[in-house]
């Protein structure tokens, strides 16, 4: 089973992202129901490894926090754009959650990721777009920004590749704890 760990997005944020999806020739836009912020891609796991990962993720204790999306960007270079994304404003609590997820899955037997974490929401996988159109898209949406929204849980998703888009299914969600200030 192909798996990843991610944050889901509120409906109003997905709607705002959906408004960004257009105006770029050759772009394959991600459907709004697939918008998410990946914490860790796990790849193909069998049942036993899935049980280990599930137990490790269930042991994570992190307070809930809020984040916002901010700006747009791309992965790749001028000769080959691989993905266009909406960025996530720097938030230490998000990095902390990512680090906890990474540590948990490594303890469960998954190889370390080894890449710098760049939180984002993938909007498109363009196919040979004219670079001038990509630059124009990025410039025209550079001020994109959402309101802050609460992150109260993270989710283990399975991904089935088939048809025009991947199909994601939530396998299990893991609640974050109440922040200390809210407990008082």
From TrEMBL:
Family listed: Belongs to the 2H phosphoesterase superfamily. ThpR family.
Motif (HXTX 1): 36-39
Pfam families for the chain: LigT_PEase
Keyword Transferase among record annotations: no
Source taxon at top rank: Bacteria
Enzyme Commission number(s) of this protein: 3.1.4.58
Chain span(s) of sequence motif HXTX 2: 120-123
Name the UniProt record assigns to this protein: RNA 2',3'-cyclic phosphodiesterase
Database matches in InterPro entries: Cyclic_Pdiesterase, Phosphoesterase_HXTX, RNA_CPDase
Role: Hydrolyzes RNA 2',3'-cyclic phosphodiester to an RNA 2'-phosphomonoester.
Keyword vocabulary terms for this entry: Hydrolase
Domain Phosphoesterase HXTX positions: 8-85, 92-159
Active site: 36 (proton donor), 120 (proton acceptor)
Catalytic reactions on record: a 3'-end 2',3'-cyclophospho-ribonucleotide-RNA + H2O = a 3'-end 2'-phospho-ribonucleotide-RNA + H(+)
């Amino acid at each position: 089973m192909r798996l990843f760990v991610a944050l889901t997005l509120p409906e109003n944020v997905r709607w705002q992202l959906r408004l960004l999806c257009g105006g770029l020739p050759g772009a394959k836009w991600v459907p709004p129901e697939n918008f998410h912020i990946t914490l860790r891609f796990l790849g193909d796991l069998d049942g036993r490894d899935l049980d280990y990962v599930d137990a490790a993720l269930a042991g994570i204790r992190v307070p809930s926090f809020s984040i916002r999306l901010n700006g747009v960007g791309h992965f790749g270079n001028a000769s080959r754009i691989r993905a266009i994304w909406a960025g996530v404003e720097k938030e230490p609590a998000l990095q902390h959650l990512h680090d906890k997820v990474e540590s948990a899955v490594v303890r469960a037997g998954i190889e370390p990721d080894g890449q710098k974490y760049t939180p984002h929401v993938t909007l498109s996988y363009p196919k040979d777009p004219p670079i001038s159109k990509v630059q124009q898209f990025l410039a025209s949406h550079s001020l994109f920004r959402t309101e802050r929204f609460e992150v109260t849980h993270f989710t283990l998703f399975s991904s089935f590749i088939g048809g025009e888009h991947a199909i994601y299914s939530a396998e299990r969600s893991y609640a974050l704890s109440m922040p200390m200030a809210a407990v008082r």
